Amino acid sequence: MNATPLLKVDAIETYYGSIRALDKVSIDVNEGEIVTLIGSNGAGKSTLMMTICGSPQARSGSVTFQGQDITRLPMHEIARMRIAQSPEGRRIFPRLTVRENLQMGASLDDLKYYDEDVERIFTLFPRLKERINQRGGTLSGGEQQMLAIGRALMARPKLLLLDEPSLGLAPLIIKQIFDAIRELNRTEGLTVFLVEQNAFAALKLAHRAYVLVNGRVTMSGQSRELLTNPEVRAAYLEGGRH
């Protein structure tokens, strides 16, 4: 691991009007790690993800990527630093085909890897190859999530941000998607920051984890330790798999 985290969020506070959504939140993501942020609905997880991407911007504290302060940069400049996001709710282009959606994600700075990157996505998600000329809006929920992740990967990111990738999906599809993320991390060293309500799946996937409650980080540690932590089990794993 590098001594300096790839992504460092330091004591950020984010507001919506006068309402404080994030209260001095600090997290680190080292190069080559999968780090997850778990918490219940409304805890502020997606707000943190959006703050990293620059909208909304943190009112105080800082966000640093590869040692550079990006707290006040506009969204498009942050994206050009090869931070790619697969947002909550997928947000693919419903009227565009699978191929066209992937084209929208490709790095405009360097298209020489385009064909190679498309094949890489189809190897990860063979279902997308079968649907290559199908409009995004006609895909199943799981296929749309695969497409959203594939589109983000087309930018060849140094950091992949995943916001609730399991939301609304069947367990088998969740497993396929999380297996693909694990494989990318294992074979390519892709760094992933995952925001997820499905605590069991997220903790099984990630190396380290943070717990967010009402806009504050209340706990952090190795994922395998949090999986067995009584507080985490009671709050997020009861009724789920153990």
Automatic annotation (TrEMBL):
Superkingdom classification of source: Bacteria
Domain (ABC transporter) ranges: 7-239
Protein name: ABC transporter ATP-binding protein
Keyword Transport recorded: yes
SUPFAM superfamilies for this protein: P-loop containing nucleoside triphosphate hydrolases
Biological processes per GO annotation: L-amino acid transport
Xref: InterPro entries: AAA+_ATPase, ABC_branched_ATPase_LivF/BraG, ABC_transporter-like_ATP-bd, ABC_transporter-like_CS, BCAA_Transport_ATP-bd_LivF, P-loop_NTPase
Family: Belongs to the ABC transporter superfamily.
Cross-referenced SMART domains: AAA (SM00382)
One GO molecular-function entry: ATP binding
Keyword Transcription listed: no
Keywords of the record: Amino-acid transport, ATP-binding, Nucleotide-binding, Transport
